[in-house]
Amino acid sequence: MISVRATFAKRRRAKYISHLDLMRCMQRAFRRAGVPVWFTEGFNPHAYLMFPLALSLGYESDCECMDFRIDGQMSMQTAMRRLNAVLPPDLQIVKVAEPVRKHTDIAFADYSICLDCAEGTSAHGLRAAWDAYIAQDTIPIVKKTKRGTATIDLKAQAQILMTQTLDDGLWLKLRMPAGTSVNVNPGLLIDSFRSALEQNHPGVQCGMMRASRLAILCADGSEFV
Fold first, then answer.
1. Nearest Cα to Cα of residue 34 among 79, 3, 66
2. Predicted pLDDT at 180
3. How far apart are CA 30 and CA 71, in angstroms?
4. CA-CA 20 to 30 A from 33: which of 11, 68, 83, 93?
5. Angstrom distance (rounded) from CA 215 to CA 53
């Protein structure tokens, strides 16, 4: 039996597939491809597929991970080739390898966020509003958790790796906590920024947000592999 960590891309139209539908899609792909994936034992056996860090709906990524086990005489490369042949073009496996790190080692994720200017808003105005927003000492928000709600400080959680003014908006690179202990969606930061615009900068508005995950990282900053 071979343990496999597949890195796959989720782009364009595939970004609108929910995580639950993604799991169903992969289950069907293994059946159609004839890959001898290992099944769990017990009352309700099913193909063992594990996704260490679910991707938010509407986000693109080239670094998503899926763990599975090959229960038979088939190489990882053959399994990847067969799966890609039956998967849609916007959902493709880009590499396979034996897992090195445990999913509990995941600590951060990097994101690229592009914020378009709404009609009547200049990129300069949006950038000035963002700089004022992120310069606050604290950015408290109420976050839903499994146990109810909790107040967290986004200023302490989010690392701003890059801010660039574009002709028609802003381009941000963020590093957010991710994993089993703490998981903060970058959308929370953008939603909070939109609310701040309404309160403090009524003449400045955000348009569409385009988001993609760039990397999944461990606590030491190394790539999750």
1. 79
2. 82
3. 12
4. 11
5. 11
pLDDT at 144: 77
- 96: enclosing H helix or E strand: strand 91-97
Mean pLDDT rounded to a whole number for the chain: 94
Alpha-carbon gap, residue 165 to 144, rounded angstroms: 32
Q: How far apart are CA 33 and CA 116, in angstroms?
A: 40
d(CA 106, CA 176): 11
DSSP string, 98-146: ---S-GGGEEEEEEEEEEEEPTT--HHHHHHHHHHHHTSS--EEEEEET
Q: What is the pTM of this model?
A: 0.92
* Contact between residue 68 and residue 6 where contact means Cβ atoms under 8 Å apart: yes
**74-115, pLDDT tens digit by residue?**
999 999 999 999 999 999 999 999 999 999 999 999 999 999
